[in-house]
Amino acid sequence: MSSATIEDLAKAIKAGEKVSVVDVRSDDEVKEKPSNPGSIHIPIAEFNDRISEVPKGPVVVHCAIGKRAQRAGDALRAAGYAPVMNVTDRDAARKTVEEAKELAQKILLPLVGVIAVAVMGSMMSSDSTTSADLAAAVAKGKKLSIVDVRSAGEVASKASLPGAIAIPVGEVESRISEVPKDGPVLVYCASGIRAGRAAGVLRSHGYGPVMSTVNCDSAKKIIDEVEKLAKEGATAVSEEKTQ
């Protein structure tokens, strides 16, 4: 079962639900490094028997490196909890909740609008940048940069695309120099909201063309399309020169 995303948690928070944080490390681990304030501590060995201690609603579950959190997350999802996001450790859990709360404050679109953005986002960004725009730059010898703005916990759960630059959306402004400025950029997250925000930041700093899309799978398709269009464009230019 797949882990939820920051956007899923943010939507739940926006709807008035409270996020529960569950720490499934052992008693000894918690004694050495206490749980985050307000967390529910249930060792993974006792989790199935004590799952009822977790309030129904959105949940962030963590351990120390992520494996036990994955098991607990699957158990919660199987028991009907949603959304449930499993992350690596207590720091990732704290940052995840903070980011979800911050994002919840910025969600203004009704659900229908969010769905529309997700559908259109795979082919077009908020400023109408398309895969053809990216391909035109690539055909001129520019390298396409891929930027993954999901949280560290999400990346740990599902790795970034090969060659992608992973920068959590809240750090894009401060780490913008890590993104090459002399070429096209494709930004993705898990549902499109954070990617759109990050793309806006990049454009405000003079990057372009910049395209945002909804998720990893959509980014893969766009990359393939860009490569195909760029190759066709380069071939056409070469043929014109020989005529």
From TrEMBL:
Ranges where the Rhodanese domain occurs: 15-98, 140-207
SUPFAM superfamilies: Rhodanese/Cell cycle control phosphatase
Residue spans crossing the bilayer: none
CDD domains assigned to the protein according to its UniProt record, in alphabetical order: RHOD (cd00158)
One Pfam family per UniProt: Rhodanese
SMART domains reported in the protein's UniProt record: RHOD
InterPro entries (alphabetical): GlpE_sulfurtransferase (IPR050229), Rhodanese-like_dom (IPR001763), Rhodanese-like_dom_sf (IPR036873)
Superkingdom of the organism of origin: Eukaryota
Protein name, per record: Rhodanese domain-containing protein
Species in which this protein is naturally found: Perkinsus olseni (Perkinsus atlanticus)
Lineage: Eukaryota, Sar, Alveolata, Perkinsozoa, Perkinsea
